[in-house]
C-alpha cells in the first residue's frame, strides 16, 4: 500500500491545516487542487479563462452569501421584531436580471474567441491517429512533414504492474479477488510516482510543431485527454474527431493523461503517456520505428520451454491479464487455470486462432503482437498455473496459421 | 375545519392494515407511501455510495473489483435519481397539492395508486441484478455503464441484465407520466373557488411546470431505451456505427430527456423553499410573479441546452456556440430566484427553526452548485472540466445540498401536519448540523480533485489525488450515518411521539394547509374552502 490509513490520516490532517500550501507530497508540477496552466498556448488560454470565471463566480458567491449573512444577523426576530412587508421592487428586479446578463456577455466574448481558435486544426505538420480500445490506446503515425506513408503504429498499455494495483484486503463473494496473501504475498509493494499514469509505449511527439490528432475508437466511446495540452476529445466508434496541439520548443518532457469517458471495467487503467522530444530526436525515433515496421517478423524458434515461458509471462501481463486475471483465474474473459480450453490438445488450434482473430468480446491480437509473442503467450497459458501441458508453440506455427 | 371534520363521518369504511396501503386511493396515504419509498431508496442508494467511497479511500484496489465498482456507480445514480429524488417530490405533491389548493383529493385517485405501486416492482427488478452480482451469479450481473448508459457500452457491450434495466426504466417512466398527468388535472380542475392560478402557492406552480416537463421528456427516455432494446435484440442499428447508426444520436436523445430531467429534480425544490422562507421571515415572498415567470423560462430554456453535456463529442462550432450561450442564459432566471429569496429574508423578522435552517443551507449550497454550473457552461474550459470530479461536485451540490436538502426542509416543515407531532428538536438539530458539515467535507474537495484532473467513474486513481479522496470518503461515511438520525426523527413522528402540533404548526405559516387540523384528517375539503 502507498501508506497506511493512519499515515494517510496524519498527512491529510496536516495538509488540511496548512491549506493553501502545496500538500505534503512531491507533486509540485501537478497541482493537487487547481487546473494546470499546461504547456501549450491553448492550455494557457483555457487556464486564464478558468481563473477569470473562477474569480467572477467567487465574487458573486461572496456577495450573495454576505447579504444572506448580514440579513441573518440583522433581520432576526430578536433584532428586528417588526418585519417590513415589501414584496416587489421593479427597479431591483430589472437590475438583477440585466447585470448578470452583462456579466455573461463579458464572459462569452473570450470564451468564443478561444473556441474559434481551438476549432482550427489546419496546417499540421504531424498527424497521428489515436484509437481507443478497451483498455489501451493505439497510435498510428499517418503523415509527418512530406512523408505521407509512415506506416508506424503501436499499442500503448498501462505499465503499472498489477501487484501495485491489487491490494485486496477481503476475499470471496462481493470481493472477487483472492486475499492479499494470495495475490502478492503479505507485503504491499510501494506505488511508483507515476502510478496508473505510466504506459509501456508512450506517444512520442515533436516539440515546436503542430500535431493534429484524429481520434476514434474500436469498441465503445473513450475520451482522449492530456490535461497539459488543454482539453479532451471523445473517441467514438465510427466517427473521426479532430483536435490539435503544439508543445513549444523548450517544453520537452513527459505529459500524462487518462481516458475520460467510462468505457468498462478498466476505464481507470488506460493512461496516455505523451513524450515530447526535440524535432531531431523525433526524426531519429520515427526512422527507427519505420525500420522496425518494415522488417520481416522474427520467427526464431524458442530454444526450450523456459525461453517461451519467460516471454509469454511478460506478454500475458501486458496484454491478457486485465481480462483473464493475473493468475489465469478469469474475469471479463474466460479462466485458463485448469480449464479444458487451455489444457485439452483438441483446443490448441482454436487457442491460437482466437488470439489472432478475436472472438466476441475478445479482441484480435494478430496485428498487435508478433508471431513470437503470440506463440509465447499461448505456450504460457498452456503451461502456467499448473496447466503443465508441455505444449511448446513455435513462432513458425503461428505464422503458418491461416 | 369544521366542515372537514363533519364530513369525515361518511368515510368509516376506510380499510385498515395492509389493504389500506395496497388499495389506497387517498392522496395522503399514497403520499406517505411515496415518501417512505423515496427514503428507503435514499438509504439503499447511499449504501452503494458507501461501497464506492470505501474503495476510493486509498489508491489501489482494496475491496471490490473495478467491474463491481462500475455497477455501484451506475445503480447508485439510478436509485438516487429515479428512486429517491423523483418519487420524493411526487410524494410531497400528493400530500400537499390538494391541501394547498383546497381539493378533496388528487383528481385521478386510482391512477395515483397504480403510479405508486409500479415503482417498488420497477426497483425490485433493477436491484435484483445487484443482488445477483453480489452473490456471484454471472459476471457482470448488474448494469455497469453509468446512469447515463451511453451506447455502445450499454447496447453491444451491456451485460444481460441491461434488459432488466430497460424494463425497469419503462416502468418508472410510466409511473412518472401518470403522476404528472394527475398533478396537471388536479391543478386545473380541483382548485377551490377563488384560488386563481396567480394565487397558487409556488410549490403548486413549480410542480405544475415540472409535470409538463415530465410529460414532454419521459417519452423521450422511453424512446431511448426502446431503441436500445431493438438494437440489442431485433437487429436494428440506431446506435451502432457499424450498422449505419450513430452512437452520438444516443447522447442527443438521452440528454434531450436528461437536461429537463435535472430541472424536474429542482423546480419543486424551488417551490418548497419559496414556502418556507416567507414563513420564518414573517414577510411575504418577494417577487411572486417573477418567480413564476422565472420558473417557466427555466423550463423552456431547459429544452435548448442539452448538448452542454456533450461538448467533447465533436460538434460543429456553430452548434457548440449555440449551446454555450443558451446554457449561460439559463443562469439568469436561476439567479433571479436566489435574489428573490435573499430579498424575502431582507428586513424580515427571522427565526431559525429546523425547516428554515435547511432552507437557508439550500439557498447557499445550491448557489454554489449554480456557480460551478456557470463555469461548466464556458465550453473551452469545459473541455478540461468535463467528465472529471468537478462535474461530480457540481451536480451533487445542486442535487444533494439542493434537491435533497429541500426535501429535508419540506419534511421538517410539514411533518407536524402529516403526523400531528412536532419533529424531535434535538435529533433534528443533530441531523442538520451533522449533515451540513459532512456534506461539504464530502463534496467540496471534489472540486479540487476534479480540477487537478481526476476523471469521474474511476475505480482507482493516480497518487496526487490521494489526500483529498481520503477526506471525501470520511465525509461520505459521516454524511451517510447522519441520515440515520433522520430515520429516527421520522419513526418518532410516525409513532406520534413528541410535542403535539397545532393546526398552524409554525407561527408565520400561511396557506390553506395550515387551516386544517394536525394531523390532517383522512379526508379534507369535502366541501371546498373559499379563498378570499
Ligand atoms: C445555473 C444553472 C446550471 C448550469 C449553467 C449548469 C451547467 C451544467 C453543465 C454545463 C453540465 C455539463 C458538465 C459536463 O459534463 O462537462 C452540467 C452537468 C450536470 N448538471 Fe448542471 N447546470 C446548472 C444547474 C443544474 C441544476 C439545477 C441541476 C439539478 C438539480 C443540475 C444537474 C446537473 C447534473 C446531474 C449534471 C451531470 C450529469 C452527468 O453527466 O451525469 N445542474 N451542468
Ligand atoms: Cu444540463
TrEMBL record, chain B:
Its main location: membrane. It is a multi-pass membrane protein. It holds the Pfam family COX1. Pathway: Energy metabolism; oxidative phosphorylation. Residues 21-532 form the Cytochrome oxidase subunit I profile domain. Signal peptide: none annotated. The keyword Iron applies. SUPFAM superfamilies: Cytochrome c oxidase subunit I-like. Keywords: Cell membrane, Copper, Electron transport, Heme, Iron, Membrane, Metal-binding, Respiratory chain, Translocase, Transmembrane, Transmembrane helix, Transport. Its EC number is 7.1.1.9. It catalyses: 4 Fe(II)-[cytochrome c] + O2 + 8 H(+)(in) = 4 Fe(III)-[cytochrome c] + 2 H2O + 4 H(+)(out). The chain crosses the membrane at residues 33-52, 72-95, 116-137, 164-190, 202-229, 262-281, 288-309, 321-346, 358-378, 390-415, 427-450, 470-495. The keyword Translocase applies. It is found in: Cell membrane; Membrane. InterPro entries: Cyt_c_oxase-like_su1_dom (IPR023616), Cyt_c_oxase-like_su1_sf (IPR036927), Cyt_C_Oxase_1 (IPR000883), Cyt_c_Oxase_su1_BS (IPR023615), Cyt_c_oxase_su1_dom (IPR033944), Cyt_c_oxidase_su1_bac (IPR014241). Belongs to the heme-copper respiratory oxidase family. Cytochrome c oxidase is the component of the respiratory chain that catalyzes the reduction of oxygen to water. Subunits 1-3 form the functional core of the enzyme complex. CO I is the catalytic subunit of the enzyme. Electrons originating in cytochrome c are transferred via the copper A center of subunit 2 and heme A of subunit 1 to the bimetallic center formed by heme A3 and copper B. This is Cytochrome c oxidase subunit 1. It comes from Alloalcanivorax venustensis ISO4.
Amino acid at each position: 500500500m502507498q501508506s497506511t490509513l493512519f499515515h494517510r490520516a496524519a498527512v491529510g490532517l496536516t495538509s488540511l491545516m496548512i491549506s493553501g500550501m502545496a500538500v505534503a507530497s512531491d507533486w509540485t508540477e501537478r497541482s493537487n487542487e487547481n487546473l494546470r496552466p499546461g504547456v501549450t498556448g491553448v492550455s494557457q488560454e483555457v487556464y486564464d479563462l478558468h481563473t477569470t470565471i473562477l474569480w467572477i463566480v467567487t465574487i458573486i458567491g461572496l456577495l450573495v452569501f454576505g447579504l444572506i449573512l448580514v440579513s441573518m444577523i440583522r433581520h432576526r426576530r430578536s433584532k428586528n421584531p417588526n418585519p417590513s412587508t415589501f414584496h416587489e421592487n421593479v427597479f431591483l428586479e430589472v437590475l438583477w436580471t440585466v447585470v448578470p446578463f452583462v456579466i455573461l456577455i463579458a464572459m462569452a466574448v473570450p470564451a468564443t474567441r478561444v473556441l474559434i481558435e481551438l476549432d482550427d486544426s489546419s496546417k499540421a505538420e504531424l498527424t497521428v491517429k489515436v484509437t481507443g480500445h478497451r483498455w489501451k490506446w493505439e497510435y498510428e503515425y499517418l503523415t509527418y512533414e512530406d512523408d505521407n506513408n509512415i506506416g508506424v503504429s503501436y499499442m500503448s498499455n498501462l505499465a503499472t504492474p498489477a501487484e501495485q494495483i491489487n491490494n485486496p484486503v477481503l476475499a470471496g463473494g462481493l470481493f472477487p479477488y483472492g486475499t492479499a496473501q494470495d495475490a502478492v504475498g503479505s507485503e504491499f509493494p510501494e506505488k511508483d510516482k507515476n502510478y496508473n499514469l505510466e504506459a509501456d509505449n508512450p506517444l512520442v511527439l515533436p516539440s515546436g510543431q503542430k500535431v493534429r490528432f484524429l481520434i476514434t475508437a474500436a469498441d465503445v466511446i473513450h475520451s482522449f485527454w492530456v490535461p497539459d495540452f488543454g482539453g479532451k476529445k471523445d473517441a467514438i466508434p465510427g466517427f473521426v474527431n479532430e483536435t490539435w496541439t503544439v508543445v513549444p520548443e523548450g517544453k520537452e518532457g513527459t505529459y500524462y493523461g487518462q481516458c475520460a469517458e467510462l468505457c468498462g471495467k478498466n476505464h481507470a487503467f488506460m493512461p496516455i503517456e505523451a513524450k515530447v522530444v526535440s524535432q531531431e530526436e523525433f526524426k531519429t525515433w520515427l526512422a527507427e520505428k519505420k525500420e522496425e515496421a518494415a522488417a520481416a517478423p522474427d520467427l526464431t524458434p524458442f530454444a526450450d520451454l523456459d525461453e517461451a515461458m519467460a516471454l509469454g509471462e511478460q506478454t500475458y501481463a501486458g496484454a491478457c491479464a486485465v481480462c483473464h486475471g493475473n493468475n489465469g483465474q478469469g474475469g471479463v474473459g474466460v479462466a485458463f487455470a485448469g480449464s479444458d480450453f487451455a489444457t485439452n490438445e483438441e483446443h490448441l488450434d482454436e487457442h491460437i486462432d482466437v488470439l489472432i482473430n478475436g472472438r466476441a468480446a475478445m479482441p484480435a491480437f494478430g496485428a498487435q503482437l508478433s508471431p513470437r509473442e503470440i506463440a509465447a503467450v499461448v505456450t504460457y497459458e498452456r503451461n502456467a498455473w499448473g496447466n503443465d501441458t508441455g505444449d511448446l508453440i513455435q513462432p513458425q506455427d503461428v505464422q503458418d496459421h491461416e | 375545519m369544521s366542515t372537514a371534520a363533519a364530513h369525515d363521518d361518511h368515510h368509516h369504511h376506510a380499510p385498515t392494515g395492509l389493504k389500506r396501503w395496497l388499495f389506497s386511493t387517498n392522496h395522503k396515504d399514497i403520499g406517505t407511501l411515496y415518501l417512505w419509498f423515496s427514503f428507503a431508496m435514499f438509504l439503499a442508494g447511499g449504501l452503494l455510495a458507501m461501497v464506492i467511497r470505501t474503495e476510493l479511500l486509498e489508491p489501489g484496489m482494496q475491496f471490490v473489483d473495478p467491474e463491481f465498482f462500475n455497477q455501484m456507480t451506475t445503480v447508485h445514480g439510478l436509485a438516487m435519481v429515479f428512486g429517491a429524488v423523483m418519487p420524493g417530490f411526487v410524494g410531497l405533491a400528493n400530500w400537499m397539492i390538494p391541501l394547498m389548493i383546497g381539493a378533496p383529493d388528487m383528481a385521478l385517485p386510482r391512477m395515483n395508486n397504480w403510479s405508486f405501486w409500479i415503482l417498488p416492482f420497477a426497483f425490485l427488478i433493477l436491484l435484483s441484478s445487484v443482488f445477483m452480482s453480489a452473490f456471484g451469479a454471472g459476471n457482470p450481473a448488474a448494469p455497469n455503464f453509468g446512469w447515463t448508459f451511453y451506447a455502445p457500452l450499454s447496447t453491444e457491450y451491456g451485460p444481460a441484465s441491461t434488459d432488466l434495466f430497460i424494463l425497469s426504466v419503462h416502468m418508472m417512466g410510466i409511473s412518472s407520466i401518470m403522476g404528472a398527468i394527475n398533478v396537471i388535472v388536479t391543478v386545473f380542475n380541483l382548485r377551490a373557488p377563488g384560488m386563481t392560478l396567480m394565487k397558487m402557492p409556488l410549490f403548486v406552480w413549480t410542480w405544475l411546470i415540472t409535470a409538463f416537463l415530465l410529460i414532454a421528456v419521459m417519452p423521450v427516455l422511453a424512446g431511448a431505451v426502446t431503441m436500445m432494446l431493438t438494437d440489442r435484440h431485433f437487429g436494428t442499428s440506431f446506435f451502432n456505427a457499424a450498422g449505419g447508426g450513430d452512437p452520438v444520436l444516443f447522447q442527443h436523445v438521452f440528454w434531450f430527456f436528461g437536461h429537463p430531467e435535472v430541472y424536474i429534480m429542482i423546480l419543486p425544490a424551488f417551490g418548497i423553499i419559496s414556502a418556507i422562507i416567507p414563513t420564518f421571515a414573517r414577510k411575504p415572498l418577494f417577487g411572486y410573479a417573477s418567480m413564476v415567470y422565472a420558473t417557466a423560462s427555466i423550463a423552456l430554456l431547459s429544452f435548448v441546452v442539452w448538448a452542454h453535456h456533450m461538448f467533447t463529442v465533436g460538434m460543429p462550432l456553430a452548434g457548440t456556440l449555440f449551446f454555450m450561450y443558451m446554457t449561460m442564459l439559463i443562469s439568469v432566471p436561476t439567479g433571479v430566484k436566489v435574489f428573490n429569496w435573499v430579498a424575502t429574508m431582507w428586513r424580515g423578522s427571522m427565526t431559525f427553526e429546523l425547516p428554515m435552517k435547511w432552507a437557508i443551507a439550500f439557498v447557499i449550497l445550491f448557489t454554489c452548485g449554480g456557480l460551478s454550473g456557470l463555469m461548466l457552461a464556458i465550453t473551452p474550459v469545459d473541455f478540461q472540466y468535463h467528465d472529471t470530479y468537478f462535474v461530480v461536485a457540481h451536480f451533487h451540490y445542486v442535487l444533494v445540498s439542493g434537491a435533497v436538502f429541500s426535501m429535508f426542509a419540506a419534511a421538517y416543515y410539514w411533518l407536524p401536519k402529516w403526523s400531528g407531532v412536532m419533529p424531535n428538536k434535538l435529533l433534528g438539530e443533530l441531523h442538520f448540523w451533522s449533515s451540513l458539515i459532512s456534506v461539504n467535507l464530502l463534496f467540496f474537495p471534489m472540486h479540487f480533485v476534479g480540477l487537478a484532473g481526476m476523471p469521474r467513474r474511476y475505480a482507482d486513481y493516480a497518487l496526487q489525488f490521494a489526500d483529498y479522496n481520503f477526506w471525501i470518503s470520511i465525509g461520505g461515511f459521516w454524511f451517510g450515518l447522519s441520515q440515520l438520525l433522520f430515520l429516527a426523527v421520522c419513526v418518532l413522528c410516525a409513532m406520534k411521539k413528541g410535542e403535539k402540533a397545532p393546526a398552524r404548526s409554525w407561527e408565520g405559516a400561511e396557506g390553506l394547509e395550515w387551516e386544517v387540523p394536525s394531523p390532517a384528517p383522512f379526508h379534507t375539503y369535502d366541501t371546498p374552502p373559499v379563498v378570499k
